[in-house]
C-alpha cells in the first residue's frame, strides 16, 4: 500500500483522513501544515512539518503522493503551487469515500475529494483539486472546473457547468443546465434558476447577484482566511527570490 500525506491539519483535513482510511487504497503517514507545531497529534497522526520539509519527508517515509485538505478553493491553489515549486513532480491523489456513488463514465482529474453520501452521476467531469462534500450531488453530464467545490447537501440538476475557483455553499439547489462562471460564490440555501458570470456573490430564492467579489476573497469564515492566503503568496515570493 502506497504512503501518502495530507496537507492541512484542520477539520477538513480530518474528514479527508477519514475518506482515505475508509477507502483503504493508501496508507496515511501524517499531516503537513505550516500553521501547526511539528509533532502535534491530530486524530492519531502527527504533524510532520511544513511544505518546506517535503524533500526530507519524501525520502524518510517513502511518500507516493498526497492530498491538499484545504476547504477554501483559492488557498488550496496556493498550497498546490507551493508544493509544485518544491517537488515539481509531486503526485496528487484522489480519494472517494466508499459511501459515495460514482456513475458510469465519470472522469476525474487529480487531487479531488468525494465525501460520504456524495453522488456523481453518469458522464460528469471533475477536473483537478475539486471537492464534492457530504451528501451533495453532481448531476449527469455536469462539469466542475479545477479548484471548484460543492458544499454539503448541494443538489444540482444535469449539465451544470461550474467555473474555476467557484463555490456552491450549503444546501443550494440548482436546476438543470445552469452555467456558473469562475471565482463566483453561491450563498447557502439558494435556489439557482439562472446563469451567473465570473466574480460575483449570489444568493436567495431565486438567487440574485448581491455584489461583486475579488480573487481570493474569503467565503468560508472570517477575514483571517484572506489574510492567510495573501501572506502565503507573499512568503512564497520571498522564499523563491532567496532560493534563486
Please describe the topology of this protein.
Elements (H helix, E strand, L loop, with lengths): L1 E6 L3 H13 L2 E7 L8 E2 L2 E2 L7 H7 L2 E6 L4 H14 L8 E2 L4 E2 L4 E2 L4 E2 L4 E2 L4 E2 L4 E2 L4 E2 L4 E2 L4 E2 L4 E2 L4 E2 L4 E2 L4 E2 L4 E2 L4 E2 L4 E2 L7 E5 L2 E6 L11 H20 L1
Parallel strand pairs: 1-2, 1-5, 6-9, 7-10, 8-11, 9-12, 10-13, 11-14, 12-15, 14-17, 15-18, 16-19, 17-20, 18-21, 19-22, 21-23
Antiparallel strand pairs: 3-4, 23-24
Helix pairs in contact: 3-4
Protein architecture, described:
The chain is an alpha/beta fold and 244 residues long. It has two domains: 2-86, Rossmann fold; 96-212, Hexapeptide repeat proteins (UDP N-Acetylglucosamine Acyltransferase, domain 1, 3 Solenoid). Helix content is 22%, strand content 28%. It is globular.
Describe the structure concisely.
It comes from Maribacter sedimenticola. The protein is of the alpha/beta class and 244 residues long. It has helices at residues 11-23, 54-60, 73-86, 224-243; strands spanning 2-7, 26-32, 41-42, 45-46, 63-68, 95-96, 101-102, 107-108, 113-114, 119-120, 125-126, 131-132, 137-138, 143-144, 149-150, 155-156, 161-162, 167-168, 173-174, 179-180, 185-186, 191-192, 200-204, 207-212.
What structural class do you assign from the helix and strand content?
Answer: alpha/beta
Number of strands: 24
Low-confidence stretches: 222-231, 233-244
**CATH structural architecture of the largest domain:** 3 Solenoid
Family: Belongs to the transferase hexapeptide repeat family.
Organism: Maribacter sedimenticola
Protein name: Sugar O-acyltransferase, sialic acid O-acetyltransferase NeuD family
Pfam families: PglD_N
